[in-house]
């Protein structure tokens, strides 16, 4: 017993003697991590003793202290958004470590919440990202949506107009709504961005059926693609659920360029280009015999009628022969669509800053002429983005953008005997009729149709002008920070103000206007204002365990959106000759649309990360909206996801595969009813001098609920050979519940239509993406990327008998979209022998894109993007009109004659709409830096020149201008029906880019 006590005392004595030696064997390194460009302290950077689990993190100012086992030691310094750095330390003491921002790392960061982000390697959803270089680095891009063609799997883009300034229907993973919003939610620097198509009143002169047939541009055209640094596409509800009941169609998050600390960089760019019609249909190869056959109708039962028809046909032949003798036939398609439009775009921007303030400022002006004389689009954009660090606790960012745009789109698309739409007039106009003005400026009457296309081109106007201001802001407050916890509070949001003016003018001398029963001139002046405000307040708590093996990020907050629309359209007919003001018209009407929408939401989300091996997320959002039947009822939208980075586990030993991630996600998002769908509409009336109101015939539903999109997504990501080759594969299944539909009602009901929740729908699809650095040498670099995606839809529940969706086609006579249980929502149906028959489906079988980037000798860049759409049909009603007018270019062929002799229903005009298109191609030369310094000194850092093209060629069996068509703009079931669109064009550019 005594021995044991004595031995215990000896151990304590030995420990006291040798403890200082053990302590002296460990060494403490202190210092500061700074950003190399600015010298600013880098907070929360990891400093780890290489080869061990011993590590720490820098504080809010970049300061750190770490005790290592011995010296010399090697430290591994790393953080998200920065390049990893190895630092050798020989002696104890204070050191300064500089780290540089990593472009590659920054591109790997993806938004996962309203105030948080995650490395792409840890992402549990198939979120696509598009960099500035991918978006606009190869060729001139007029609009953002048009620039996304072929660059994101799962995104179907269809041009609704070839007019300058665009017009696109953009769908993420198929049709998400039938009546409601099918375009995704756009968020630019935290500001909810308005993408309305604003009607002009043109339909009241042309006889078009609805405002979405007026060939308007969507307002995304106001955003300059060259200002964009990065785009993130949240394609489904599993990723977009945190954005609540405006996210059913997906979310596109756009981040514009910002400054970096250090030297001020100035960039100047000049593009010059031309645009030409991509696919003219051409003139029918007329002969005297074909003229006679076209306009003579045999009628043995009525000899007098046959004689009159023969005389008329012979008169046409005489006019044809006279035209041949006096200069030939007139190709009116070339006269209208044959202009060579000139394009210029000038850009100047500067960026820089110091450790406190960073800035990016830029100005650009694009002027684009159309392929029709007197059409065009111009856009002036001025941007200023500022980031300022007030203190170690507070910082803020602001994004300001002013845009002034002007658009002239003339008259194309659907009409009903307005004599204005070029496609209609060209379909019926004979090429031997001279419609050009005489020496006195008088335009001849078109004997074949109620309008002269040359008069329309020269004398009418269809214009709009927009002044737009966007202001976004973010304020960050760091509430608490220690080694394991970081708590911050963020307020962000912004305002989007749109002031739009439209102007439609048709002189009283226009043929249809001057005819008996005509309007005797038409003018419409629109004053349209949209004010959109959003704000959100979010608290974020980041927690790390001491060993940095487990990270927990929790966020919670509230969000608020307020939208006010005030569209006023003043119209006048029976104009005073030569006058262009509404007050100089005899009959005047004013149409005003007022709409106010308010959404309010609560949200919370928790993200957990264990050693970058297991990454899970759960979240929930509660939203209410004034567009719902009960504006105070909260609707919930959950989300959950899990990613398993198999290649990060200790057992993984396959060196060739450096990443293998399995992922699964589920989420729900919503889509409220349209404004006013909760109410039955009334109109003012005046009977015997007594004013009042009467039913308009539109029956609303006071109990209407938002559509709910519930999506399950699963897939995997793989990288091979040190990430030289990567593969992403995704399967999704999206169930849309409580679809809001509009159906026709019997007249006995007292209403014409009803809008309410009537159906369910599903979308299923597959997305694949492969990217490979095929060759990487000093003098040859080749990157190849390909995408494959398909979608299938089906109506799984319908509470009423199948019906033709109002406004989504031209009835079952010519063909329409038809809502039918068990069938795709994109089917086209016509009536044959008294029965509704599916004649086509506008949904493609699949789509692919092939992107190549090649660099030779570090100076010459070559790139091209090839797009392949397989399957899908269009309803070509342009061909229906040219057949009626006997002007189709193939009527001399056997196929043309067979079509003329068949029944004129939708089956006759459905055509395959697949294609292969060279969407983009470019060649650039970058001058060597030593050459520049020799001739220009150090003032100019880089010069790049190049040539490029868009829509260079298209291989297709489709017989009209473009297999991408949409008569109804970007709304609802719009794609796949063509009625005399503004033809698409191909563009070619010369580029000059100078960096100072």
End-to-end distance, in Å?
86 Å
Q: Kindly provide the name of the CATH class of the largest domain.
A: Mainly Beta
Overall structural class, as computed from helix and strand content, comes to mainly beta
Main β-sheet: number of strands, strand sense, barrel status?
22 strands, antiparallel, barrel
Task: Describe the protein's architecture and organization.
The protein folds into 3 domains: 16-104, Carboxypeptidase-like, regulatory domain (Immunoglobulin-like), CATH 2.60.40.1120; 133-278 and 339-995, Maltoporin, Chain A (Beta Barrel), CATH 2.40.170; 288-328. Helices cover 13% and strands 49% of the residues. The radius of gyration is 33 Å and the shape is globular. Residues 1-7, 9-24 and 103-107 have low confidence and may be disordered. Helix 10 (422-428) runs parallel beside helix 14 (877-884). It contains 17 helices and 48 strands. With 996 residues, the protein is mainly β. InterPro entries: Beta-barrel_TonB (IPR000531), Beta-barrel_TonB_sf (IPR036942), CarboxyPept-like_regulatory (IPR008969), Plug_dom (IPR012910), Plug_dom_sf (IPR037066), TonB-dep_OMP_SusC/RagA (IPR023996), TonB-dep_OMP_SusC/RagA_CS (IPR023997), TonB-dep_rcpt-like (IPR039426). It is a multi-pass membrane protein. Residues 413-788 form the TonB-dependent receptor-like beta-barrel domain.
Topology summary:
Blueprint: H1 2-25, E1 27-35, E2 46-49, E3 55-57, E4 63-68, E5 73-78, E6 85-89, E7 93-99, H2 103-107, E8 109-111, E9 117-119, E10 128-131, H3 132-136, H4 144-147, E11 155-159, E12 168-172, E13 185-188, E14 191-193, H5 203-206, E15 228-234, H6 237-240, E16 251-256, E17 262-277, H7 288-295, H8 303-325, H9 332-337, E18 341-353, E19 357-369, E20 376-389, E21 394-408, H10 422-428, H11 453-459, E22 461-481, E23 485-506, H12 511-514, E24 522-544, E25 550-575, E26 585-610, E27 614-625, E28 635-645, E29 657-671, E30 682-687, E31 690-695, E32 698-699, E33 707-720, E34 725-744, E35 753-776, E36 780-798, E37 803-809, H13 811-814, E38 816-819, E39 827-832, E40 835-841, E41 846-856, E42 860-870, E43 873-876, H14 877-884, H15 894-900, H16 906-909, E44 910-912, E45 915-926, H17 929-936, E46 942-956, E47 977-978, E48 985-995
Parallel strand pairs: 1-7, 13-16, 32-35, 43-47
Antiparallel strand pairs: 1-4, 2-3, 2-5, 5-6, 8-9, 10-15, 11-12, 13-14, 15-16, 17-18, 17-48, 18-19, 19-20, 20-21, 21-22, 22-23, 23-24, 24-25, 25-26, 26-27, 27-28, 28-29, 29-33, 30-31, 33-34, 34-35, 35-36, 36-41, 37-38, 38-39, 39-40, 41-42, 42-45, 43-44, 45-46, 46-48
Protein name: SusC/RagA family TonB-linked outer membrane protein
Signal peptide: 1-25
Organism: Aquimarina celericrescens
């Amino acid at each position: 017993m005594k021995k044991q006590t004595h031995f215990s005392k000896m151990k304590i004595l030995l420990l006291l003697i040798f403890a200082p030696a053990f302590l002296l064997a460990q060494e403490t390194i202190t210092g500061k991590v700074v950003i190399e460009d600015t010298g600013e302290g880098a907070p929360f950077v990891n400093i780890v003793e290489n080869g061990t689990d011993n590590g720490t993190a820098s504080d809010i100012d970049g300061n750190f202290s770490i005790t290592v086992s011995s010296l010399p030691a090697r430290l591994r310094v790393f953080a998200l958004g920065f390049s990893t750095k190895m630092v050798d330390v020989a002696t104890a003491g204070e050191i300064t470590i500089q780290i540089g921002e990593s472009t590659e790392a920054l591109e790997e960061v993806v938004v996962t919440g309203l105030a948080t982000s995650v490395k792409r390697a840890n992402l549990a959803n198939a979120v696509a990202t598009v960099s500035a270089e991918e978006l606009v680095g190869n060729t001139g891009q007029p609009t953002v949506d048009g620039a996304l063609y072929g660059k994101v799997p799962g995104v179907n883009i269809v041009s609704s107009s070839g007019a300058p300034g665009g017009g696109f229907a953009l769908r993420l993973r198929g049709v998400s709504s039938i009546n409601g919003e099918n375009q995704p939610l756009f968020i630019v620097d935290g500001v909810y961005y308005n993408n309305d198509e604003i009607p002009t009143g043109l339909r009241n002169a042309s006889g078009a059926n609805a405002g979405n047939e007026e060939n308007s541009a969507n307002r995304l055209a106001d955003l300059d693609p060259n200002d964009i640094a990065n785009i993130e596409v949240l394609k489904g509800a599993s990723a977009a659920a945190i954005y609540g009941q405006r996210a059913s169609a997906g979310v596109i998050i756009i981040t514009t360029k910002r400054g970096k600390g250090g030297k001020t960089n100035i960039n100047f760019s000049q593009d010059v280009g031309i645009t030409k019609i991509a696919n003219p249909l051409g003139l029918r190869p007329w002969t005297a015999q074909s003229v006679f056959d076209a306009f003579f109708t045999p009628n043995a039962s009525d000899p007098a009628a046959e004689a009159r028809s023969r005389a008329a046909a012979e008169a046409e032949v005489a006019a044809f022969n006279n035209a041949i003798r006096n200069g030939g036939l007139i190709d009116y398609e070339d006269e209208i669509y044959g202009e060579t439009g000139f394009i210029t775009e000038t850009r100047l921007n500067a960026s820089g800053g110091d450790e406190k303030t960073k800035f990016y400022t830029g100005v650009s002006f694009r002027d684009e002429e159309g392929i029709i004389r007197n059409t065009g689009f111009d856009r002036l954009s001025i941007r200023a983005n500022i980031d300022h660090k007030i203190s170690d606790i507070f910082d803020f960012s602001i994004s300001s953008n002013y845009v002034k745009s002007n658009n002239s789109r003339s008259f194309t698309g659907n009409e009903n005997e307005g004599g204005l739409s070029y496609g209609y007039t060209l379909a019926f106009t004979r090429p031997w009729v001279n419609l050009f003005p005489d020496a006195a400026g008088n335009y001849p009457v078109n004997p074949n149709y109620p309008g002269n296309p040359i008069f329309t081109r020269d004398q009418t106007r269809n214009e709009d002008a927009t002044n737009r201001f966007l202001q976004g802001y973010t304020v960050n407050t760091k509430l608490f920070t220690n080694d394991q916890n970081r708590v911050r509070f963020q307020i962000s949001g912004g305002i989007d103000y749109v002031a739009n003016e439209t102007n439609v003018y048709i002189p009283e001398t226009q043929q249809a206007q001057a005819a008996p029963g005509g309007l005797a001139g038409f003018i419409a002046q629109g004053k349209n204002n949209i004010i959109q405000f959003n704000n959100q307040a979010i608290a974020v708590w980041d927690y790390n365990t001491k060993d940095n093996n487990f990270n927990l990020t929790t966020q919670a907050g509230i969000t608020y959106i307020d939208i006010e629309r005030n569209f006023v359209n003043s119209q006048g007919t029976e104009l005073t000759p030569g006058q262009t003001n509404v007050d100089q018209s005899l009959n005047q009407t004013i149409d005003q649309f007022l709409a106010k929408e308010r959404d309010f939401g609560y949200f919370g989300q928790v993200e957990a990360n264990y050693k970058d091996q297991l990454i899970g997320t759960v979240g929930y959002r509660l939203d209410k909206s004034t567009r719902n039947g009960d504006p105070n009822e909260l609707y919930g939208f959950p989300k959950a996801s899990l990613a398993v980075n198999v290649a990060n586990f200790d057992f993984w030993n396959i060196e060739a595969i450096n990443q293998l991630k399995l992922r699964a996600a589920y989420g729900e998002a919503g889509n409220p009813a349209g404004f006013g769908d909760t109410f039955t509409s009334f109109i003012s009336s005046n009977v015997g001098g007594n004013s009042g109101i009467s039913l308009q015939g539109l029956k609303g539903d006071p109990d209407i609920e938002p559509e709910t999109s519930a999506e399950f997504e699963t897939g995997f990501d793989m990288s091979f050979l040190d990430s030289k080759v990567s593969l992403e594969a995704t399967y999704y299944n999206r169930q849309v519940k409580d679809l809001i539909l509009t159906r026709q009602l019997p007249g006995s009901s007292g209403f014409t239509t009803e809008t309410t929740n009537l159906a369910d729908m599903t979308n299923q699809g597959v997305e694949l993406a492969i990217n490979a650095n095929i060759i990487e040498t000093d003098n040859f670099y080749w990157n190849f990327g390909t995408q494959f995606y398909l979608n299938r839809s089906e109506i799984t529940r319908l509470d009423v008998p199948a019906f033709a969706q109002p406004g989504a086609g031209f009835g079952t006579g010519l063909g329409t979209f038809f809502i039918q249980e068990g069938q795709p929502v994109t089917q086209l149906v016509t009536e044959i022998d008294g029965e509704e028959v599916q004649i086509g489906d506008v949904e493609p079988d699949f789509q692919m894109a092939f992107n190549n980037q090649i660099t030779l000798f570090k100076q010459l860049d070559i790139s091209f993007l090839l797009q392949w759409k397989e399957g899908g049909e269009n309803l070509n009603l342009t061909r229906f009109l040219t057949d009626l007018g006997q002007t189709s270019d193939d009527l001399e062929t056997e196929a043309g004659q067979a079509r003329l002799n068949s029944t004129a229903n939708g089956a006759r005009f459905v055509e395959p709409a697949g294609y292969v298109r060279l969407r983009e191609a470019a060649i650039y030369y970058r001058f060597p830096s030593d050459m520049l310094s020799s001739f220009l000194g150090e003032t100019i850092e880089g010069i790049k020149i190049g040539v490029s093209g868009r829509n260079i060629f298209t291989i297709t069996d489709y017989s009209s201008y473009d297999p991408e068509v949409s008569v109804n703009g970007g709304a609802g079931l719009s794609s796949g029906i063509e009625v005399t669109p503004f033809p698409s064009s191909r563009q070619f550019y010369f580029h000059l880019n100078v960096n100072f």
